[in-house]
Amino acid sequence: AVPETVTESETSKNQEEATMQIKITVGDTELFATLEDNATTRALVDQMPMTLSMSDLYGREMCYRYGADALPTDKLRSDGYEVGDIAYWPPRGSLVILYEQNGEQFERQHIGHISEGVEVFATIGDADVTFELVTE
Q1: Dihedral sign, CA of 27, 114, 77, 13?
Q2: Which of 1, 79, 86, 87 is 20 to 30 A from 117, alpha carbon to alpha carbon?
Q3: Rounded to a whole number, what is the largest CA-CA distance in the chain?
């Protein structure tokens, strides 16, 4: 019975981690993102709620620069991104929301993913964006 108990608690722990969500508000629009559990995400969640003045860059991403290597990283990856991804780019300490695909691959820490509505960023330009942890 003990191994089953351990397995069950590990399973429920993993489910909790898999469903950690944040609400992202820009103007009157609310978006929801599911977060990955890693060092960068934990550092960001510790700052929430927060409102960041984000810049619209390259017609593909909303960006806030913390400064080079401002946040910890532990799972960098270099591959293509998906529209809706939230990522951290260490060289400039950039927190980015990727809203348009251009096929670029770059080294980043994956933070999470916005499942729907991310196209709102294609039309608003620079904006204040609020990030809040969703608690059940």
Answers
A1: positive
A2: 79
A3: 57
